[in-house]
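User: Let's play a game. I give you a shape written as C-alpha cells, and you guess the letters that built it. Ready? Here's round one.
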C-alpha cells in the first residue's frame, strides 16, 4: 500500500511525517521545504527520503520530469490571479480552499 513517490512541498507541522506514511515500502520522498524526519519507518521500510531545497540534484530532477512526462505524476493546475485579488487569494489559501499554487500576476 502507498504511493511510489511523494514530492513533499508543503511547510508545516506533520507534513514531513505524513509524506513517509503515504509512501509504499521501497518508495521515495523528495522534500522541498522540510528536512526528512527522523523516523524508524524510513530505514525499516527501505524508503529513500531526500531534502532537495538549495541543493541541486540533476539526477532526481530528471527522474521527476520523466515521471511527469510519462503521466505517472499529475500536477495540480496553477491558478493565476491579478494582483488586485491578492487578499482574496491569500484568505482562500490560508483557509485550505485552494489546491496547487496560486500565482499573482503583476502586470
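Assistant: Ready! My guess for every position:
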Amino acid at each position: 500500500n502507498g504511493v511510489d513517490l511523494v514530492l513533499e512541498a508543503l511547510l508545516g507541522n506533520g507534513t514531513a511525517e505524513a509524506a513517509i506514511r503515504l509512501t509504499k515500502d521501497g518508495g521515495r520522498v523528495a522534500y522541498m521545504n522540510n528536512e526528512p524526519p527522523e523516523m524508524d519507518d524510513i530505514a525499516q521500510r527501505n524508503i529513500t527520503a531526500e531534502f532537495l531545497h538549495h541543493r541541486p540534484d540533476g539526477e532526481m530532477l530528471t527522474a521527476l520530469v520523466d515521471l511527469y512526462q510519462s503521466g505517472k505524476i499529475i500536477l495540480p493546475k496553477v491558478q493565476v490571479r491579478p494582483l488586485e485579488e491578492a487578499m482574496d487569494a491569500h484568505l482562500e489559501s490560508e483557509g485550505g480552499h485552494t489546491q496547487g499554487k496560486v500565482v499573482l500576476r503583476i502586470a
